[in-house]
Fold each of these.
Amino acid sequence: MVGPNGVGKTNLLEALHVGAQGFSPRTRAEPRLVRFGERAARVQLEGTERGSPVETEVTLAPGEGKRLRLNGAALGSAEELRSRLAALVFVPDRLAVVKGGPVVRRAYLDRMLGRVFPSQAALPAEYGRALAQRGEALRRVRADLSTRAAVEPWTERVAELGASLDAARAQLVALLAPGFAVHADALGVSAATFAYEERGLRREDLETRLDRDLERGTTGLGPHLRDVEVRVDDRDLRGFGSQGEQRTAVLALLLAEAAVLAERRGAPPLLLLDDVFSELDAGRRRALLEALPAGGQTLVSATSADALPADAREPALVVTVRRAGDASVAEVA
């Protein structure tokens, strides 16, 4: 997909992601996805997956909630759509996965958890709800509105779900780490590691620190405070990585996940790569193209077709995006 800057290439990739995954990769403020002056936005996609037809429809209407349909059937949440379809995206905003704070990496890891292990998709939300309930119980005790006994059931629940979430994250990172290192090396960053140390969560540990939790009104131990390490040698890429290294790390993580999904689901995910070539030399562009999963569909945006290495195979389709008044128009070459 080619076209000069500002014509809407990123918006088109964003729309494809909304239609396939039910949310924007660029913003959580969904009313911003609705065009000025309009009451709603709708994305409809048609395609095939493993030979079967697939149709999705996602409607965003501020104040009315999000409506999702898959093959004509209404879905209860975006998680249901993501458990059925796999799509991965790289946009410049995704550098926050490496350069942002721990909360960004935790959220990204937990969304990835649902894609790779669909049966675990609800685990992060369930843990979050139990954590909130324990926090409310702690604050009620602190305000002399309840007794410590009211905290005990939630301590048990938080420990159970927290240990499960911690173990699931560790299993996921162990699956991704080898591919991450290989792809990072191919893209020019050697000795890159992706790591998460499983620590578990025991009820006894939460009970030991109950006085501190009561004082603060929050649970001060558990996977909601953990982080995943993205490093090169002994350097944490968040604080000591160059922009190029951070960009490469995000791409390597995406390629590693794509390979895992292709193996586990029997079909590669849809890949949406925005402005992915702009900071890569010809050799690394070639390495990226060679790493794309075979048999899958990848949409790559660039300002011109010249962004492809000279010896790269011809793309199956070239879409030119241009402006027409206040709208973007996509034309197939």
Note: The mean pLDDT is 92.
Amino acid sequence: MGFLKKYKNIIEAAIEEYKFTDQPAQLYEPMNYILHLGGKRLRPVILLMAYNLFKDDLKPAVKAALGIEYFHNFSLMHDDIMDRAALRRGKETVHTKYDENIAILSGDALLVKAFQMLEDLNPALFKPCFQLFSHTALKVCEGQQYDMNFEEQNDVSYGEYIHMITGKTAELCACALKMGALVAEADEEDAENLYEFGLHLGIAFQLMDDYLDVFGDYEVVGKKHAGDICENKKTILYILAKQQGNEKQRAELDFWFDSKEEKTEKIHTVVKLFKDLDVDKLCLELINDYTEQALNCLEKITASEEKKQDFYELMDYLLIRES
């Protein structure tokens, strides 16, 4: 996956080049802090990849990619406050290291900086890119609100769940891909196909994340086993189980998801229910369906197969995370 490292290095260098040195330091230091916690830089990387499908000189796309990364980290700062999370990528979250008020204000400032990264685009590109970015920002906020609503909602439908993860996860990936195409002045149809590719890939990625939380090798995945069950999160596995189960099985599922305790018995019982109802197989079938839809969109893009090869490898990297 050397091509990912190439793009990531460009983003890391840009983060250093545009490091915040403004005053007051109490506002800007937390912004630098979260940007230096690392991560895959997936969203800005795919923006550069999309641009590279149509043009070779990446420089005109770097600030737009940085804007996507700023926005993503702004959302993480606020998500961590809402989730009361103490750690992010193994380090203290911003609100833990500094305080909640600073994290809110620094997050807001990072959001403004994200939009400022588009200011150097020529006027013909600025308007469509700004409109796409602002549309996406609202969709991400809507997705987060739906996610919070589901914590108090007894029944979450399949459609509601897909709508939520589309906003919370897939929209920003789709935005990054389409923006890369827009900055490269690609054909409108190609830009739209990249957007649809991003939506379907983002949904498949989140469904795979749900699957691996319960059925993955936690040493490979690098997450606590069945953390979603412990936290009573109504993921796709829960929704499929509710659809497939009989009255007794649904009642048992409700009982455990009403419990606030992280018991081994709870995990064992819920996982057994999922397996009895073939939820693992059904989830993998859904992942395959969305992956196929993503591939169909990718195949429609007019760039050469050689240039699209990185995207096929990216899909394997994101969706085949366990042998």
Note: The chain has 16 helices and two strands.
Amino acid sequence: MQSWDSIKVLSNLAITSEYFLQVTLDKSGKVLSSDSGIGPVPSLFDHKEKPIFFADCFLASDWSKYENQRIKAWKSSHQSFIVDLQKINHPDGNTVLTKWEFFFITEDFGTCLGLGHPVEPLRPYNLGLGEFIEGTTNSNELVDILLENKLLGFWDFEPETKTDYISSGLAQMLGYSEDEIRSQKNISWQNHIHADDIQGLIKDLSMHFKTTGNIPFRKEFRIVSKGNQVSWVIGFGKTTKWKEDGHPSKVQGLLIDITEKKKQEIWMREHHYFLRDLAFQQSHSLRARVANILGILEIMDTEHQTPESRKLLDILKTESKQLDQALKKSIKDSVNQNESWERGIGPS
């Protein structure tokens, strides 16, 4: 990733997410900051300034792995590095495998901000979110959408075997219980796509494959939960493995909930069309009345007028014609503006 703003977005996302973890380590392994899921929970007797170190959060033997990756990235002038670490769960002391992407945030390449997530054995998601964003041409858009909307989870698809994997958070959103998530090895999010949106999604995904990933996969569509609750989502995808013949072997991505945004768009569209039609009818109604006035003035113009009445009649004719021209211009500008606005709210 090249944008510090993007890293900060992901950092903030980790703080509010049950899926992501966050930690900042200095060169010695001291924890400078972290979310509540990292490190031991302090007791009432602990000093509030008591320092926390790498070995309080991860297996001590993983420090050499972390350091090797950090130094390797530094010497290769990379901005980040990825490493698997065994995270210690406090207070019981058991461990869970987690995947981390660490970003250098100081000039000496010593202090690193890490964003991690558990590696789920049944539903692997091994693509770092930072790597995913960096590898997409619409990375700024993705970061903006993450700021404004809710991340539902990740998906993993193998086209050759038609095998699906999804993160547990996404499975729960689709209405699956914990027991179902544990017992079913591959839950397909594609089976939850709204029937009216399937063909468009397949078309866009096929174009991504045909262009060997040059056209990124990005699609707005509806998904339906087991309880028939319909949600609007935006899906981003990236082919992470290709076969020698150029066909995709693995596609990974994420889904973001944009339901509230879509509700607002629909409301704006309906009210826009209502106001457009109302303004159109009123404008044409006014022009019809101005035309009637001009007709009457033309009749009066053929009759004998005193100098004073002739002067007033000429003023009325001039003002009425100018009013008619102003109405014509207003209608034309309104039509152009409506066409431009409707293009902006058209189907994605």
Note: The longest helix spans residues 259-301.
Amino acid sequence: MFLADSLPILEVPVLKTWLPVMEQFYTIQGEGFNTGRAAYFIRLGGCDVGCHWCDVKESWDANAHPRLAIADLVSAVLAHPGREVVVTGGEPLMHDCGPLTAALHAADCRTWLETSGAYPVSGTWDWVCVSPKKFKSARPDVLAAADELKVVIFNDSDFAWAEEHAAQVPARTRLYLQPEWGRAARMTPALIAYVKANPRWQVSLQTHKYLDIP
């Protein structure tokens, strides 16, 4: 005879059904391979990468943003005709993105990830854009999963740094150089010259800022 109190307690992992969300909106993707395509953006809160030129520093503190149910996020996506969903941050891979991508795929959406590569990949993604930062190194396993490598150019030394990362991604990975917005006037001519001399790279611009859209 066994008593219930004598049975071992099994720890069952609990999947989070919510995520901290700074903002969400339907717009046009402004950068990289998918530039110009309609997409719904989900910007998750939380980041410890610490780029001093980050233009969404308010995303860094995950506790500053409301916890939204994954089901509600999917419902918000489905209120628009587009089915491409960009999950960005902050650094989205600080969270377990598995439940979110599963719910989005169940709703016939396609998932695009924007990450610094500093954390392991969670979730199932249709497109992975890795934009490595000097302040926290990208993981080799995340670089190996990159469909797109997008390097922000702030200084002349960043071209060599970009090449170091290009050597770590698969041959199929699309390579982009993007001028940091605050330094665009200075760095864009050098970036253009570099791409002309190294044509496996492409220029990426923050076209949403030129268009004055989110």
Note: Helices lie at 70-78, 98-106, 140-143, 158-166, 184-197, 207-211.
